[in-house]
Amino acid sequence: MRLRASQQLFLSYLLLIAVLITALSAGAESRLRRILVEGVERQLAAELSLAATFYDASTDLPADSVADLLGRRSGHRVTVIAPDGVVLGESARDGVALSAMENHAARPEVREAVKMGRGGAIRASETVGRNLLYATVRSSRGDIVRVATPLTEVDAAVSRAQRGIFGVGALAVLLAVGLSLGFSVAVTRPLRRVTAAARAAAAGDLSIRLRESRSDELGEVAGALDSLAEELQRRVLQVEEERAEMQALIDSMSEGVLALARDGTVRRANPAARRMFGLGRRAQGLTPEAVARRPDFLRLVRRALAGETVTPTEFVSDGRSVLATAHPLPDGGAVLVFLDVSELRRLEGVRRDFVANASHELKTPLTAIRGYSETMLDPELAPELVRKFANVVKVNADRLQRIVDDLLDLSRVESGGWKIEPERLSVTKVATEAWSAETTVASRTVALSFMIDPAADLVYADPAAVRQVFSNLFSNALRYTPEGGSITVRADVSTRPGLEGESRPRWVKVEVQDTGSGIPSVHVARIFERFYRVDPARSRETEGGTGLGLSIVKHLVEAHGGSADARSEIGSGTVIRFTLPLAPA
User: Fold this and answer.
1) Is 5-156 a domain of CATH 2.60.120.10?
2) 354-368 pLDDT tens trace
């Protein structure tokens, strides 16, 4: 059984007090007995001198009679012993004849008296059967006179004293019990508080403070524990802040981060990683196979868990290009970082296509200009051919100018260098102006019609931008719509900048529909890309467009907060749809 500190202190004090009381009682008994015995010895020595004197003077009386007389007078036992130990007289024979009594030569007090003249001893009497104090003296007649008295009164006095001492000791023990209990509790109370505070700190509660005012060692321990708790609390708060900051940083990363345990299971996954691999919020504990079954991913995990630092490695997962790196952790496990580069790879493809298309678009008119200009340098060339070739050079130079102008317009819109200046304007009016400019140079007859809801005729947009949007759309429609075809402009109120609907009307949805040849469905999603052509052969036609018109349309519409898309079928024509902000009432 394990005793508490207060119990140990209480029992220690109690045992100490009990030992002290016992020692004091034993010492007092021994001292008292010695004092009483010394008093009896002094009294007995005086009586013995008188008895020896009386015996020397009573030469005419038998020794036994003298012993009886002295015994009656003194109340003590008186014995007269010859030097050879024969008992000559005894006051306490109790009917025993002198001749039947033992020889006393071997008695210690008798031996001392024979040898030294005086003697004494405390021992049990073989005659009376109890402890007696003996005193002996050698008389002038040569015989030994012995006086003996029992120590009954001494024993009684010592007993009374012992009872008093034990009573006082019992009272002292009771007082000691209370005092030691209170003292042990008072001493151990700070210890219990220190223990409770230490246990609370070990359990994570660092807010407890002892605030002890004691100036002893316990106060110093309590103060040191308070300082330790304050420092630990400060460090813990600092670690928690750093951890929260690090967690927020990791969670806000666009890169996916997976922390793996030693056995490969997921310890932590940030939101980007959960989105990338389609994991739920409880991704912890998932195996690598449950995250992704791609061989490239599993191979990356095995290498990282084997302690290898994996440099950026690209693999494809669920149709996405992912760039992954991995670093092993010192205590086992690894951290994997994934970057979705699908958009980057797509943009790289778009850039390559743009460079190739731009080079191709610029090369066609430049080739024509160079060829015809070299031919025009021939001095023997007929004037009619010179004029014809000069006209071809001018047409291709104009085409180059249009391409450069469109590239500059597109660059200004994309870079933010062009700012819209919106105002209230009529869709019908702007579309009519753009149609008039395009039909002036058109080579075929195509009819234009309007189906515009009066509530959707007014928009809040930049007039030049909207005019350019309609010009580009009409130019494309006229280019691919056959003779006798038609183009229809529709407009109605929409409820969001997309094409589905929002909570309240704020947008105008405009459609430009032609009856041209249409676009194959595989190309519809890409017609707004720069220089993208459904039929690459058209880029070599001198009357062909620059391939930038629809891209400019999309950027101008998006600059107003709207959106643009297309719908088309082969043989059924094409519909280009876009949205513009509705003019405020």
Assistant:
1) no
2) 677 677 677 878 888
